[in-house]
Design goal:
It is a single chain. The protein is mainly alpha-helical and 431 residues long. It has one domain: Up-down Bundle (Growth Hormone, Chain: A). Helices cover 78% and strands 0% of the residues. It is globular, with a radius of gyration of 21 Å.
Length: 431
Amino acid sequence: MSASKRSARMIRMQWVAMALITGAIALNYMDRSTLAIGNVKIRAEFGLNATEMGLLQSAWSLMYALFQIPIGYFLDRSGPRFLVGAALVLWSIAQGAGGLAVSYMQLLWSRVALGITECPAFPAAVRVTSDWFHVGDRGRPTGLYNAGGGIGPAIAPPLLTGIMLAFGWRAMFVTMGVVGAVVWFLVYRSPATADLTPEDREYLRDNRTSESPVTAGQWFRLFRFRTIWALILVAFCTGYAVWMYQTWLPAYLEMQQHVSIARTGLLASVPLICSILGSFAGGHLSDWLVARRWGLVASRKWPAVVGLLASGLFTAIAMTARSGGEAVMFMSAAMFFLSLGIAGKWTLITAVAPQSYATSAASIQNFGGYIGGTVSPIATGMVVDATGSFVVALAIGAIITVIGACILVFMLRSPISVADLEPTTVRVPAE
């Protein structure tokens, strides 16, 4: 199924495009990480409990989730270049505002604004991948941009912890707010405006199956299919697990395992580095299965299933950790397999949705992910406040991850075709 005939120049353009969107996602995740890194100090300054800290993350995640619904539609109509560039500028402003907050409510509103402005990142990555790569070659680039979600948080703990210890958490927020969109606007180009050879055009020939933009009616018809609802529910489960770790990992090490703040900055990076490796492994495995003539859907679906099951297992084992080192080891395995499964899940979108609807399907799926991401931080905070421990919170995360694997196995069966999404017409029989 892979179509590999393309020029060396085309290959360079493809990976430059992927490097740009991966960098945007990494920055996106670094901005989000400021709250987790500053968790203990922010709580002390504002006198917050764990539930109130969880609410800050949940407010960001809820806004991110709600704005996923329209953003895929606009990306399918207009493409990623302008929307991603504008988002980079706006979320930098929102992030910087968080560093100037003098009250809990101001900090809360800055997180709301950050959630709204960061929403195009992942749907845009799906559009960039589906614009530049043949459907059989999308596993590895999908693994790369998913790795951006690990690269940002992996860089963030040592870098941002150092800034926080030297200058305070406010300086950390402001520092993350100064990065803009100049590189994206100067470098990124879509295939439609790039100077490609006939061979390269042939490679991309099937990538846009419809010349006209997706209409609102066609977009709404996506919700009629069980496949779309399976993607939403699986994304809820993976979003819950991801944000349980990314929001609470530093606090878990400090509160449960009594690790110092300085050492937490280093230890918290290890599971996140493993998540990067898991993303690459998931993308590579998915394309490897395609090359060995597995069906396109099966080659994307089964790595996701295996990854989620293994992640749930290691999250459960992490409940038994008796030291920071043990906890990091088990959580590293859990996050490796979680990212492997998520890479398969993102690649699955372009296997089950038509090309022209892939970005819309991606944003709808991501809505489910960030509803999970909304529930997870505040639910985890409430459990920690009620029990004084993270053990029950980890058990809940493990169970939800396994449920996600089961939904993929039993609910997601068949792809959606272009014909399925076209309006039905009533045929009048000839007399």
